[in-house]
UniProtKB/TrEMBL annotation:
Keyword Phosphoprotein: yes
Protein name in the entry: Response regulator transcription factor
Any one GO molecular-function label of the UniProt entry: DNA binding
Ranges where the Response regulatory domain occurs: 4-120
SMART domains: HTH_LUXR, REC
Sites bearing 4-aspartylphosphate, chain numbering: 55
GO biological process: phosphorelay signal transduction system; regulation of DNA-templated transcription
């Protein structure tokens, strides 16, 4: 039985190229195409494809929102993102929306075919550049989590009050310690975080959601 594929992209040249290659695959059948997310949802309802090859940036409804709705309303339909964007702000929302694979448009045709077949078996496949992005993101998150762990409980308290915009005097009164003790904690915090001043420390903590 052939794998039924729906192509979704707002560039006709891309659609023609995909159709030209995939039609040469004996176990893949192109059942239709769409040029935006709204059309894609209608085609999924009408054609019941196994796989949707989905672009990200399209008019009317982008590929992320379309993927989210397909994943919610048609859980048996598997979406593979096929786009030019490998940045984290494109990759992570697509994965969260339910995309089973993420390939870039420079992917080798044979690799794309294997990605489609892998998705049919429920396996995720990502372009190497995308994989590198994800690894980098996870590594940075791990480093950020480790960062707050190097501070003592009291240093975390002091840093928390710094993020609230409190002065050394106010922090001292809040924690029932002397201003000198607060200054000592701040010096230690800056040394451990390798930052120059309390403002940088506060901004870093806020940016990384240490106290959310």
């Amino acid at each position: 039985m052939k794998i039924k594929v729906l192509l979704v992209d707002d560039h006709l040249v891309v659609l023609r190229g995909l159709r030209f290659f995939l039609q040469t695959q004996s176990d893949i059948e192109i059942v239709g195409q769409a040029q935006n997310g709204i059309e894609a949802l209608k085609k999924v309802e009408e054609l019941k494809p196994d796989i949707v090859l989905m672009d990200v940036q399209m008019p009317k409804m982008d590929g992320i929102e379309a993927t989210k709705q397909i994943s919610k309303n048609y859980p048996d339909v598997k979406v593979i993102i096929l786009t030019s964007f490998s940045d984290r702000d494109s990759v992570l929302p697509a994965i969260k929306a339910g995309a089973l694979g993420y390939q870039l448009k420079d992917v080798e045709p044979d690799v794309l075919a294997e990605t489609i077949k892998a998705a049919m078996e429920g396996n995720r496949t990502f372009h190497q550049q995308v994989t590198n992005q994800l690894i980098s993101h996870v590594t940075k998150e791990a480093e950020t989590d480790k960062g707050i762990q190097i501070l003592t409980p009291r240093e975390r308290e002091v840093l928390y009050h710094i993020t609230l915009g409190q002065s050394n005097k106010e922090i001292a009164a809040e924690l029932h310690v002397t201003e000198k003790t607060v200054k000592t904690h701040i010096t230690s915090i800056l040394g451990k975080m390798q930052l120059q001043d309390r403002t940088q420390a506060a901004l870093f903590a806020i940016k990384n959601n240490w106290f959310d």
